[in-house]
Amino acid sequence: MNTLSKKEETIAIGIDLGTSLTKLVGPGGENTIKIPSLVGDPNPGWKGLGTDQSWINNLVLQNDDGRKYFIGELARLQSEIKRPLAEHGKMKSLKDAITAIKAAMSIFVESDYANLTIATGVPVASPQEEMTTLSSGLKGAMTINVANDATGEEKQIRLKIDQCLVMPVCYGSYYEILKQSGENRAVDAVVVDIGAGATNILTVYEGRLMRTASGSVQESITTLADRIASNLNQQTGKILRAFELIKAIEVGRQSVMIAGEQYDISDTIKYYVGTISDMVVDELTTLLGSLPPDAWIERVILTGGGAQVFGEVMKNKLTEHNIVHSPSEVIVPKDPVLANAMGFQKIAESRNK
Fold first, then answer.
1. Which of 253, 341, 351 is nearest to 303 (CA)?
2. How does pLDDT run across 310-337, given as a tens digit for each residue?
3. Which of 2, 12, 68, 255 is deepest in the core (most CB within 10 A)?
């Protein structure tokens, strides 16, 4: 019988369990993967002859209970019944979250018998009990059985997670920005993480996470897509679903093709970005009202998939509401989509020293 061999070096991995994407980052930030935050039931129907035979897009996991699950992109495309890992600013199912993270690690970790330290972020509204349960569910030795749905190839990965740190998702970006700037002290700051399904707000005061000044709101990229879709449906008489617009919005497209015709959405985007930003800043103002009078917000960090879409407008709104003195005090990470996972990777690495 094989036993886990203790290696001199433990691999540090950062994980961001997002509403739309789960992101993993390895040492040095060089090895990264992104998969849709979905777990689905297998589809016993026919298989096509797709040219994409990559593991990341054809991932099937067999859990300890013997059941098989489609993960990520495969669940999105092929599962009739699919379950998001997070929704409305909270984790939906701890079991599904653990299943998806295990599956992702099977293609992320190449060496058998690897020893890992992982740090993962969960939505800010997640209760402490759920965070503790997720941590204990991922710790220890495990055998992960996965298959490639396109090729039929199977593999087994055995690894051991020595430490599993679970924190509010926005803390990853806070840590990443502090490390990038060379800051060694605790900075009073607010992180606004605009995701696909919710906007998470995390306040840090004297190095402590302030739960009473943190929270989440439903306004997000999906809210923006919903409103643009409704506007286009009235304008064109066609039925356009919001999720079909999200990618176009995230990459900065100013026009979309509907039934062979192009429609300019630049003015619509500008209008709704403004109204949604007002809602987010209003909620942030309310949350900050619970801070002690001596608190002084030195930085606002704007991160997540919506940071680029909402960035300039949010900077101006935060200045108008006197949360910052000028737009220059609002920081957007170099890679706002991966910033949380990158910060968590550094946190996990610091635990190995």
1. 341
2. 999 999 999 999 999 889 889 999 999 9
3. 12
Does the pLDDT value for residue 4 go beyond 80? no
pLDDT at residue number 91: 80
| CA gap 46, 312 in Å, rounded | 47
Q: Distance between CA 89 and CA 218 in Å, rounded?
A: 7
Residue 203 φ then ψ, to 5°: -110, 130
Q: Quick count: other Cβ atoms within 10 Å of Cβ 324?
A: 18
What sections of the chain are H helices per DSSP?
73-78, 94-108, 128-138, 171-181, 221-236, 243-250, 266-288, 307-320, 339-351
Rounded mean pLDDT, 163-183: 90
Q: Which two tokens stand for residue 350?
A: 């610091």
Q: Which has the closest alpha carbon to 123: 82, 83, 172? A: 172
What three-state secondary structure class fits 154? strand
Gap between the Cα atoms of 160 and 204, Å rounded:
32
- CA-CA distances (angstroms) from residue 57 to 60, 74, 103, 147? 9, 6, 12, 11
pLDDT category of residue 2 using cuts at 50, 70 and 90: very low
Please give the single-letter amino acid code of residue 152.
Answer: G
- Measured CA distances, 258 to 238, 240, 270 (Å): 8, 8, 20
Question: Side chain identity at 214, as an amino acid letter?
Answer: S
All structural domains of the chain, each given as residue ranges with its CATH number in brackets, are 11-171+340-351 (3.30.420.40)
For residue 70 the two structure tokens come to 């489609």
CB contact at 8 A, 189 and 213: no
Region for residue 237 given its phi and psi (left: phi exceeds 0; alpha: psi -120 to 50; beta: otherwise): left
Query: Is 50 exceeded by the pLDDT of residue 51?
Result: yes
Tens-place pLDDT, residues 142-156: 999 999 999 989 999
Strands 189-194 and 299-303, sheet pairing: parallel
* pLDDT: which is higher, 124 or 71: 71
110, 146, 176, 227 from 11: Cα distances, Å = 11, 21, 18, 43
pTM of the model: 0.88
Angle at 136 between CA 92 and CA 72, to 5 degrees: 40
**Taking a C-beta distance cutoff of 8 angstroms, is the pair 116, 74 a contact?**
no
